[in-house]
Amino acid sequence: MTRGPQQKSDRPRIDKLGVKEGLRVAVIGVDDDSLLSELRARTDEIVIGMPRSRRDVIFYAAESLNALGELETLRTRIVHTGAIWVVSRKGRDRSISDTDVITAAKRVGLVDNKVVSFSETHTALRLVIPLALRDR
User: Fold this and answer.
1) What pTM value is reported for the model?
2) Domain segments of the chain: what residues?
3) How far, rounded to the nearest angstrom, does the alpha carbon of residue 79 sit from its chain's CA centroid?
4) To which CATH superfamily is domain 16-130 assigned?
5) Which of 10, 37, 59, 83 has CA 20 to 30 A from 46's CA?
């Protein structure tokens, strides 16, 4: 069955975000209790705030261009196959656009490869290290 452009997926959000069992996750500034519950059901490796060691996935709340300046540091905190999900407001309430996130990501050697409707009010854009720049 083909879904039309307006239909929503029935897949759980945690699956859309690609969080698998055992992944090491950090959550920085994302105030979403349901996300934390979903993560706890999937993995025991959750850090709230800036991680000291590299993580497989980082969820990062960004609501300003200044906040996107942290992407350079966050890039050093993910494994070479890891991802940073930049979570920001969507719609009329947004203070940054997807283009702002993509531009900031490119400046620090990251590329975007997926967008997810994170919640009714927020969107999430996944940033990764390009294949050509990953450690082998």
Assistant:
1) 0.91
2) 16-130
3) 14
4) Vaccinia Virus protein VP39 (3.40.50.150)
5) 10
Residue 60 main-chain phi, psi, to 5 deg: -130, 120
Which residue is listed with tokens 């942290």? 70
Encode the chain (136 residues) as per-residue pLDDT tens digits: 455 555 566 889 999 999 999 999 999 999 999 999 999 999 989 999 999 999 999 999 999 999 999 999 999 999 999 999 999 999 998 999 999 999 999 999 999 999 999 999 999 999 999 988 777 5
* Residue-wise DSSP of the chain: -PPPTTPPP-S-HHHHTT--TT--EEEES---HHHHHHHHHH-S-EEESS-SS-EEEEEEE--STTGGGGHHHHHTTEEEEEEEEEEEE-GGG-SS-HHHHHHHHHHTT-EEEEEEE-SSSEEEEEEE--GGGS--
Tokens (6 digits) for 77? 């905190």
